[in-house]
Amino acid sequence: MTARLDPIAASHALHAEMQQWRRDIHHHPETAYEEFRTSERVTERLRALGLEVHTGIGETGVVGVLHGKYSGGKHIGLRADMDALPLTELNTFAHASCHHGKMHGCGHDGHTTMLLGAATILAQNPDFAGVVYFIFQPAEESNAGAKRMIEQGLFERFPIAEVYGMHNWPGIPTGHFAVHSGAVMASTDSFDIEIHGNGGHAAMPDTVTDPILVAGHMITATQSIVARNLKPTSGGVISITRMIGGSAYNVIPETVSLHGTIRSLNPQDRHLLKQRLQTLVEHTAQAFHATATVRFLEGYPATINHPANAQACYQVTTELVGEAAVQWNPPPSMGAEDFAYMLQHRPGAYIWIGNGDATESRALHNPHYDFNDSILPLGASYWVRLVQHLCC
């Protein structure tokens, strides 16, 4: 092979152009399965680089295929998400959203740009063995675009052996990374609880079955599920986020509904928390001569890295920035990420790249958020160095 490409120098040379791409995407945000303009821009760029490009996978998803100069080697997938949030942006800078009610408030504009930067560098310097699949995914924000791409043949059409993802992370300093050997982010499930009592006059509570009283006991009791059922070293959350019931000061209603979310870091705890919530709801209602039902809305599974692949990511990041700037196995997040579906089908890993202090302008899903353009070269360098490491 020829002399090894320096990805840091190459990505810094591309920085100004990447910033233009990123701000253009930020200015034109598109939400789940509507990423038509973004997909077109990605497709145009990949084709201009000479890549084989496949569109319409997962509705608006794009896959670019780049073959290395040398035979053999691995087939690896690198994934970036493209969708924006249904959020009204409050920034006033020139590249703020031009679509009211839509905003790149999670940095997917930066993720897409960093992967495009890596594709540019590698297409111009394909000094590796194997094949790289650049996966530009739609609908990560609560609409399971990764699952849709898989259902539409992602891993059947492309012989991807390993798959990798990356997310910007506020609170991790600029120039730093975080890598987990196991759980990175939680599973997420929603639930609806319907409590049925026997309404009547508020001045005559002895003649009714009060569903508001039942709901109050349920709200309190659910907080014991995680504390008294999961190991103290495990992570789990049950939050009731909405209560609906009642219509007047002097009327005890017939029904009350509770709604919320469950988060956990492994499939066993996920099943246990749902099972315990259902039992608690049903029996608490019975204790007050009411009835109650629970309906679960299944969300994303937990994002769990494969240890060997995570170790490879750790080695690459430490080569880039040094051991002192890479956190190994920090506490996982109880947020969720649909890259989990890809990790259920192929070995791989998902890492965090520091986005700087968690100020208002750096907090994910905040209307003042903006991706930190200074990390674009580092993110692109990481992707290039990962390919160099895996496809040597």
TrEMBL record:
Keywords annotated in UniProt: Hydrolase, Manganese, Metal-binding
Residues that hold Mn(2+) according to the record: 106, 108, 141, 167, 365
Cofactors that this protein relies on: Mn(2+)
Pfam families: M20_dimer (PF07687), Peptidase_M20 (PF01546)
Cofactor note: The Mn(2+) ion enhances activity.
SUPFAM superfamilies for this protein: Bacterial exopeptidase dimerisation domain, Zn-dependent exopeptidases
UniProt-recorded Gene Ontology molecular function terms: metal ion binding; N-acetyldiaminopimelate deacetylase activity
The protein's name: Amidohydrolase
The keyword Metal-binding is assigned to this record: yes
GO BP of this protein: diaminopimelate biosynthetic process
